[in-house]
Amino acid sequence: MRVGMLTGGGDCPGLNAVIRAVVRKGEVHYGDGFVGFRDGWKGLVEDRTQPLDVEHCRGILPRGGTILGTSRTNPYKIDDGVARVLRTLEAREVDALVAIGGEDTLGVAHRLAAEGVRVVGVPKTIDNDLSGTEVTFGFHTAVQIATEAIDRLHTTAESHDRVIVCEVMGRNAGWIATYAGIAGGAAEILVPEEPFHIDTVCESLKARHAQGRYASIVVVAEGAVPVAGTLEVASASTDQFGHPRLGGIANVLAPEIERRTGFETRVTILGHIQRGGTPTAYDRVLATRFGIAAIEAVHDGAFDQMVALRADRIVRVPLGDAVTTLKTVDPDLLHDVAGSFFS
Q1: Among the four 7, 125, 159, 254, which has the fewest Cβ within 10 Å?
Q2: Site described as Important for catalytic activity, positions (predicted)?
Q3: pTM of model > 0.85
């Protein structure tokens, strides 16, 4: 078979491990040929390709990012975009397509399946918010990076008796904030699932201060929002999928904390540091398992399906089900586990 492959949405550690696994398994075991499409769906719209084979994939296992490039292009938002995708697939004689991405990339894949595209999805998002799988590769690496940063912030906060607001990724789900906040011993964790009240946050910090805890780390997900009417937050621009381009809630939160408490407060926004660099061993293994399962699904004819992790086993789930709802943080994890240490 001739198999096409693309990576869409935000990059994350482990993408190259998926690409490598698909190509190695497909070429060596099935005798497949491959074509890589550059920059996500943009590559199919504009017919931009690059060769993919075992030789081109040597040495990419530990590399962050994606050798195919990525974008947030949505062919359904481009004039004649879908027709151009279909023409490219036909011109390149692609028998099946492996799409690696999050809810937006895989949502497009699901819609294209209805157009007759033979596509298999691989879940990718460091936010860990795809409901079809228990965990996505890249999440573990992002949590590790954020936890190490929080560990370092503790030492400087304690040296100066400061509050430090650490902003991490998480548009609609606070998995990174919750896990890194628990692992890093944060005083407060603010997530998109539960709007925060600035007065409650400040009262908690003042209570810590009264107990002699003069340094505090507040971990906030980029998508966290205040209770309506309690704090003014600027609106953000949107991408082709209608999602706001987030980042900067910490810059709103920190001065308010300092003004209301009198405690010196600083900001650290981790941003794309969480996306870049070498994936952890766990993410390399999970990404490899997903890649192998994806090419096997192609040869089983399991199209319009996504490979997923369930109870440490790789399974297949319908793409439509996988992207319908987001997986959000369990309130018990946030309150019973993390909340037990908020003092």
Answers
A1: 159
A2: 124
A3: yes
